[in-house]
Amino acid sequence: MVQLGLVGLGKMGFNMRERLRAAGHEVVGYDRAADVSDTASLADLVAALDAPRMVWVMVPAGDATSQTVLELRDLLSEGDLLIDGGNSRYTEDKVNAGLLGEKGIGYLDVGVSGGVWGKENGYGLMAGGSAEDIERAMPIFDSLRPEGPREEGFAHAGPVGAGHYAKMVHNGIEYGLMQAYAEGFELLEASDVIENVPAVIKAWQRGTVVRSWLLDLLVRALDEDPELDDLEGYVEDSGEGRWTLEEAINNAVPAPVISAALFARFASRQEDSAAMRAVAALRNQFGGHSVKKIVE
């Protein structure tokens, strides 16, 4: 059993807390939403943990994460370990590690994939940091990842920054995969030959080379709304696709599929399309991301 402080109990953080508790770990959670929080403040969370402490931060990337890290830096002590499991940009990890290192606090960056389904299925984890800190947090990683061989759900990707870099590329690939399914959906819907689009897509779930969990989620979305007519084809991007393309440019790596998928999301904010309704539905299915419903 390991004791862990968990900061941020949103869609993923809340389910992570429940999965860890089910595995026998003691998890003390803090969130601004008092109805899900175990403590009234970050200070109370830190005080509730035995030294040396381990605290996992699961808040939105950017200013929210930076501010949380700074607050915890003042509350934690030498020998403690902070883990950033949000979707931070990998370039921010060395900054955070440096600030914490000045006080002798360890730092790991962990890319987490699994969305709202992670509580049941487990989370794919990509970690960056020292081997010593990785080993210390391994009981937590083993409880969060899917059952089966460790290497199929967890990777020590490299030094600080590697975990978020790996997750950035993962999300870039995700953009391309969703866009391909979405364009296929639109083509089937536009055809005057195909009479049952949901049935065709459902038939791809077994024995075909395009079967995947994302396809299963698209089938689930179509079961709920066969033509996705209840959704607007408006799709946000949370940053990782842009960062992936910037890295592709910096490293002279061609990434036409990911770039096209990102630009398609931009286009979705200008004009409604069946393809982007499918992408919106997929993001809602796997990650619980908000969608815009058509108001009649």
From TrEMBL:
Keywords: Gluconate utilization, Oxidoreductase
Transmembrane portions of the chain: none
GO molecular function, one term: phosphogluconate dehydrogenase (decarboxylating) activity
GO BP, sorted A to Z: D-gluconate metabolic process; pentose-phosphate shunt
Coiled coil residues, start to end: none
Keyword presence, Nucleotide-binding: no
SMART domains: 6PGD
One Pfam family cited in the UniProt record for this chain: 6PGD
Family membership: Belongs to the 6-phosphogluconate dehydrogenase family.
Protein name: 6-phosphogluconate dehydrogenase
Species per Swiss-Prot/TrEMBL record: Prauserella marina
